[in-house]
Design goal:
This protein has about 500 residues and is mainly α. It contains 17 helices and three strands. About 55% of the residues are buried.
Length: about 500
Amino acid sequence: MTVEKPADAPPPPQYSPKRWATLAVTLFAVFMDMVDNTVLNVALPAVQRDLEATSAQLEWSVAGYTLAFAAAMITGARLGDQLGRRRIYLIGLAGFVVTSALAGAAVNMEMLIASRVLQGAAAAMMVPQVLAMLQVDFPKSERPQAMSMYGMSLALGGIGGPLLGGVLLQADLFGLGWRPLFFINVPVGLIALAAAYRLTRESRADSRETFDVRGTLLATIALVSLLYPLIQGRELGWPWWTFALMVACPVLLWLFARYERRVADRGESPIIDPDLLRHRSSLGGLLVAVLFFCGMAYQVVMTVHLQTAEGYSPLRTAVALATFTVGVGIGSAFAPKLMPLGRRVVLMGCAVIAVGMSIVAWTVNRYAGGLEWWHLVPGMVISGIGLAMVAGTLLTIVLAKMPRSASGAASSLINTSIQLGAATGVAIVGTVYFTLLEDRHSPVDSAVTGLLTVVGLYVLAGLLALVLPPGRVDVSDVEPDDEDENTPGDRGSAPGATVAVGTTTAQGTP
């Protein structure tokens, strides 16, 4: 007996047959973002000498990128939902190329910091479209593998940045020192732009929503009220108002949440829909992501310590840090199979990376003055395995209860949490590390304390992960908002076709 669906039932979603090639191209934007998020780390001593930078300016050159990224992420996602994700992705990628050229041409620290802020804003236009397009282009059963590739791109980009930086600094192309770290984005970005133009298909939300300007400003002020005193407070001597700003941050975030609820109750479009955070998995996963990615600030400690205290060249420093990638590769081989276990994988991953960083801290102390890069391999590999276990699993947990129609907003929330964590981590760990150095503590003691601060952040992330719902994560092909969907498969649309995906419209590439 055949049961026919009502004539007015929405057609089943059609998934592009080119979706894996499209994912590879768009993930390159994630990779580029993470490379530029970390590429400057290995060059900090060179930049400090060339542009006579203070330690606070060095922190701003790193954190300014991630802060701008986090602040503009939700706006970028909203633009993609309204104007087309493919269009905004291409615009953001083009802006990223231009701002990279400006950063490479910087004549002083003020210009470099400003260029980095603009570069972060451009990245915020392109990166949130990746997860949104992933949600639209892939059936739910294929998303764990796609999410694993996304998480691996984050990890490899984070490690690839220092490695690329070390190679370029060692080569000293055309005698330009650290500047090719940014100039290389120009030809590479243009190639990625051409490939994305050919392969990606357009998608957008059916509804046309207004921009929540007040909410955006309130959220940005809240973030700056935390990060500005953390980064600048040490150089200013910690005046009273730096502590007042940090105390004001949670108050501002509470006011932001109340304001967004009122906006939603009026039937208008909040910058963050409170309904997206009604699930324990979504809110808990985002909070864990913020705390977990704070730990990536270990790179600032290690790159400065290895070059200034252990006498490493930039390339040797990059090789030492790149061993992390081996662990990421090992973890990525089995992490997708563990993702359905949900919270248990996050708990195990946080424990693994905390152990790995503890070994790195012990190694730095044990071999002080004679530290070889291979001494760091055990701790770095273990840490990489832990990151691979957590990154993709957190993404899967957060998105598990979110409908496909909310893919743009969900993607912005996830990426904002990651970037906010990265920026906050630089501020916290950098403050601890540089304060000890400036207070005449030994370089080894300063580095070990900074690394133990990282370990503490990972332990706290593991404890916070207990708020995540227990049990398995559903990775079946039944969507939260379209449970009557047909059995999925490779359902692609013909070029130029328009297909309904939940309440999201997806168009084939012209």
